[in-house]
Amino acid sequence: MKPTLQVRLSQHLALTPQLQQSIRLLQLSTLELHQEVGQMLEQNPFLDLEEEAASPFETPLERPPADTPPADRIDEPFDGAAHRERGDPAEGHSAGDGGEQVDEIRADEFGTPGRDDWENGTEGDDFDGIRETPGRVQRDGDEDDSELSERRGADITLAEHLRRQALSLRLSPEDRVALLALIDSLDADGYLADPLEEIGARLLELGAAEAAGVGTRAARGLNGTAHAGIAGVAGHGTPAPNGAATPEATDAPDAVEAMHDRLRCALRWLQSLEPPGVGARDLGECLALQIRQQPRGPARTLALRIAQNYLELLARRDIRRLMSLTGASEELVRQAQALIVACEPKPGRPFSQAEANIVVPDVIVRKSGRGLAVTLNPDVMPKLRINDLYAQAARAQRGSAGNPGLSARLQEARWFVKNVQQRFDTILRVSRAIVERQRAFFTHGAIAMKPLVLREIADELGLHESTISRVTTAKYMATPQGTFELKYFFGSSLATEAGGNASSTAVRALIQRFVAAEDAAHPLSDSQISQMLEEQGIQVARRTVAKYREALKIAPAALRKTL
Fold it and tell me: Which helix H or strand E contains 32, and what residues bound it?
């Protein structure tokens, strides 16, 4: 081949480090953003956090922001300059008293040339590629008092609750070690996660290590719990004076059998503790442990038999099959079913940490006169500023042969402050556009939701669809109807007989209403729900109804039928 020279003209988009940081901050959740801010505060001395800024998770979210003007409604056009004059924290204002003034970043810089796979503009799937199941926090005023007390009382874990009860039992050191080992093997639901054989093998291994005088840290117990007498429960006795283990081997048949016997005895102790059903190895055993605490009678005996052998038939509501296999009457089967339904399938549920499911909203929507006020949650906004002392020192060394890294650090801090401010500004703009499009939802609920896709908000705000996707991911809005993820307000459209469009979110709300009002003895099938929707003027296929029903976690008609 003969070498030649050619001149080609091409265009490509180069993302600067600052723009890459802007895009990355935009897609972070609130928790991830505060972790990012904490890391930046540790790494960059030019960045400071205002002293009066409290943690976003320590201040109540219900209080209205003090600096929110009453006339701040979505009915008014969004004016960025006027917004900054009012001192809104979402806009590009001064980073803090005494800090440096930061500039505005153009919002259209957040677009990228590529789109996600589901952002190709096709409407083939009813979900339009968007996960529309709401991340919602219920705020019903009629919440059960007992449930509230359980949630508030979940200050200790299930393992701690069981260990306190174990202290009141008169057990030998070996039996206590075996019981604590079983407690450490429970999962969050209160079930025994590991077979007794595996737990016994671990205890034998730790007992051998303790008897040999090695691995003392591991031999202190399982999962960080300090146990004593592991060598004793493993059958090794005391270590020899020279630190060697006793002649008895870890895998001796007698030692293994003795360990299994001790663990089986400890399991009976564990299953006698509160809450009832703890320490079970499967659902049937969990229900049986709770049923045994009921008064004796034919219904209790039948419920035990069903829980141990015929749970699958009970789940299918196959009454006739249960009557045939057990020889019991229909009334007795119903009484046994009532006993089983009253049991708790997850004994560890009251001890689960409810705080882990709390959602901190990024945007708050309140009714204000005839309009809706859309404001950022001030409790999640980090209040950052540029350290004046370090900034002046860096400027003083700019003309001299000082450290060139100081200027780079200062510029990095400035860009970070601007990018954080731009992130909240973009979230606010997108939220206002969503509220304007879905105004009927805030009055009538999900049934009034309108079809909405990312492209509509992107065209309205002059942003890219990928930017809207990043803004609406893991960002939440607190509304009078509850707290929802921003993606919840987007939904594909379904055709109607009148020639209009209906939102898939509204269709799912209708399906929920139909199922809630159905006859429990004759539940609605997917075909019947499809016909009812067609009577409402909405054309939905049976397969689409089944997909929406599964997304709503509604069981099929055969499983919803009441016995």
Answer: helix 30-43
Q: How many CB atoms lie within 10 A of CB 552?
A: 13
CA–CA distance, 45 with 41 (Å, rounded to integer): 7
**Dist CA 322 CA 331 (whole Å):** 12
Given a contact cutoff of 8 angstroms between Cβ atoms, the answer to whether 92 and 102 are in contact is yes
The predicted-structure confidence for 213-234, as pLDDT tens digits, reads as follows 544 433 444 433 434 455 455 5
CA distance 65 to 79: 20
Beta bridge partners of 49: 384
Give pLDDT, residue 426.
Answer: 94
The per-residue pLDDT for range 424-482, each reduced to its tens digit, is 999 999 999 999 999 989 888 888 888 899 999 999 999 999 999 999 998 999 998 88
Q: Which residues have C-beta within 8 Å of that of residue 316, sequence separation ≥ 6?
A: 558, 559
**Residue labelled with tokens 């089967």:** 333
Burial of 376 (0-12, 13-18, 19+ CB in 10 A): buried
Residue 309 gets which letter from DSSP?
Answer: H
Q: Measure Cα distances from 399 to 259, 407, 409, 449 in Å.
A: 77, 11, 16, 60
As a whole number of angstroms, the distance between CA 443 and CA 317 comes to 39
Q: How far apart are CA 236 and CA 212, in angstroms?
A: 10
- 492-560 CATH pick, 3.40.50.300, 3.30.559.10, 3.40.630.30, 1.10.10.60: 1.10.10.60
CB atoms within 10 A of CB 130: 21
Give the whole-angstrom CA distance, residue 479 versus residue 136. 10
What 8-state DSSP symbol labels residue 276?
Answer: T
